[in-house]
């Protein structure tokens, strides 16, 4: 039991680590933003009456009258692509950012990484959904991607066991 309580104390001390708290803050922000994209997709599916599954069209009629709602819509597909891009970028940030936070970077450097990534992902979403002219979407993607690569480099250079 005493070993167990010691392990719990170490875990509890992690929340006292300022870099970890910064990571937790910005990870939560970008994960919530990514979750919001599901709601935006659902909103556009309902308002555009464009569904992917037959059972989703049931409230709009039966048989052939409901089949016309089983279709793709350009706006829905655009939001889905933005959401997919979040999955492709926020999930790696979540894992690499955690490893990075545990490698003991300076708080100011860590905050810079986390804030730039979160800002880039939020800008990417606006650039995708408004849409803003290129290269705004491409640049915002590249900035977020570069931040994740930078953190991965720090992790590998700090804890290299290759």
Low-confidence stretches: none
Q: Can you tell me the CATH architecture?
A: Up-down Bundle
Report the order of strands and helices.
Answer: HHHHHH
Residues in helix, % = over 70%
Number of domains: 1
CATH superfamily: Membrane associated eicosanoid/glutathione metabolism-like domain
Mean pLDDT: 90
Distance between the termini: 36 Å
Q: Name the beta content range.
A: under 5%
Shape: elongated
Using the coordinates shown, work out and report the CATH topology.
Four Helix Bundle (Hemerythrin (Met), subunit A)
CA gyration radius, whole angstroms: 21 Å
Number of strands: 0
Reading off the top of the CATH hierarchy, the class is best stated as: Mainly Alpha
> The biggest beta sheet, please?
none
The number of helices is: 6
> Structural class from helices and strands?
mainly alpha
In short:
The protein has helices at residues 2-14, 18-48, 64-67, 74-102, 107-129, 136-158.
